[in-house]
Amino acid sequence: MRSLRRVLSGVRRYVRELTDESAYDRYVAHVRREHPDARVPSRRDFERMRTDRQEQDPRQGFRCC
């Protein structure tokens, strides 16, 4: 049972990294570590900032719609 949980946990972690679902978690860790006095934006605000940045810089990826 433990090995199944470990495998499923690894698959979940892999999929989160592959789809960049973990980007917010990494960002929050970065803000708390590098800027402890700064306000951590909500997930919604983070996604808006990320989308705006991607649309302004074509090197960040293609967005069709």
From TrEMBL:
Chain residue ranges for the region called Disordered: 39-65
Listed Pfam families: Sel_put (PF04328)
InterPro entries per record: Sel_put
Name under which the protein is recorded: Selenoprotein
